[in-house]
From TrEMBL:
Cellular component GO terms, alphabetical: cytoplasm
Keyword field: Cell cycle, Cell division, Chromosome partition, Cytoplasm
Subunit organization: Component of a cohesin-like complex composed of ScpA, ScpB and the Smc homodimer, in which ScpA and ScpB bind to the head domain of Smc. The presence of the three proteins is required for the association of the complex with DNA.
Top-level taxonomic group: Bacteria
UniProt cross-references to Pfam families, sorted A to Z: SMC_ScpA
Cell compartment(s), UniProt: Cytoplasm
NCBIfam families assigned to the protein according to its UniProt record, in alphabetical order: PRK00104.1-4
Protein name: Segregation and condensation protein A
Tagged with keyword Transmembrane helix: no
Any single GO BP term: chromosome segregation
Cited function: Participates in chromosomal partition during cell division. May act via the formation of a condensin-like complex containing Smc and ScpB that pull DNA away from mid-cell into both cell halves.
The encoding gene: scpA
Metal-binding in keyword set: no
């Protein structure tokens, strides 16, 4: 399957780490090296498996986390004072960068909220379709939310896969799968649960379906929604109203 997708939603390894810290409810001032490293590598491996075009900085951060995890698992007497100081410096530097990144990200969100409030000062015609969505609207769904949902879905697929041998289907292109997904969503006329769009147990078909969803999101043909942080994802035809 030769198909690579570049997603603009990747904001860097610090953004992924902050996502994991929020998801795992970890104290940013006391990050467990082993747990955060395992979760980070799971996401990076999923990106590579899907052949997403990710920057090398993700791999550099992965190497840093693996080194921190290795040192944390060693007995106290196995490391010298210099190695211990280096570990502390690396951990403190990472924590400092995360805290600084979080501040900037929260400031950016605040500015976006102020911008939205400012736009309310201008009158707009109801015909614009401004009030078509649900009042509260969907939460912002990031690429990491999508990857997390894909991970959970594939794990469940592996657990429920039938033991009998199955006949492999003919390989399907991303473009063909995009058309099939759009028809499914148009016919449904209501938000469809993310997992319900993955009927196959074949890895290749699961990957093609996921890439098709990402491409449809990129083209603003569909919207992926969440009713709460880290809740289940729902997909509906039609792009976001931000561009209207």
């Amino acid at each position: 399957m030769e198909y690579k997708v570049k997603i603009d939603s990747f904001e860097g390894p610090l953004d992924l780490l902050l996502h994991l810290i929020n998801k795992l409810e970890i104290d940013i001032y006391d990050i467990p090296a082993a747990e955060i490293t395992n979760q980070y590598l799971l996401y990076v491996n999923t990106m590579q498996e899907l052949e997403l075009d990710i920057a090398s900085e993700y791999l550099v951060m992965a190497a840093t986390l693996i080194a921190m995890k290795s040192r944390s698992l060693l007995p106290d007497h196995a490391s010298t004072d210099d190695e211990y100081d280096e570990e502390e410096d690396t951990g403190e530097e990472l924590m400092r960068r995360l805290i600084e990144y979080k501040k900037y990200k929260e400031a950016a969100v605040k500015l976006q909220e102020l911008e939205k409030e400012r736009t309310k000062l201008f009158s707009r015609s109801p015909a614009d379709g401004l009030f078509a969505p649900v009042k509260e609207g969907p939460l912002n769904v990031t690429i990491y939310d999508m990857l997390g949902a894909f991970q959970k879905m594939t794990r469940r697929k592996k657990l429920s896969v039938p033991r009998q041998a199955t006949v492999r289907r003919q390989e399907m292109s991303v473009e063909t799968r995009m058309k099939m997904l759009m028809k499914t969503l148009h016919d449904a006329k209501v938000p469809v649960l993310f997992e319900d769009l993955f009927q196959s147990h074949e890895r290749e078909e699961l990957v093609v379906s996921f890439l098709a969803i990402l491409e449809l999101m990129k083209q603003n043909e569909i919207t992926v929604m969440q009713k709460g942080s880290f809740a289940q994802l729902y997909v509906v035809s039609g792009g976001t109203t931000n561009d209207k």
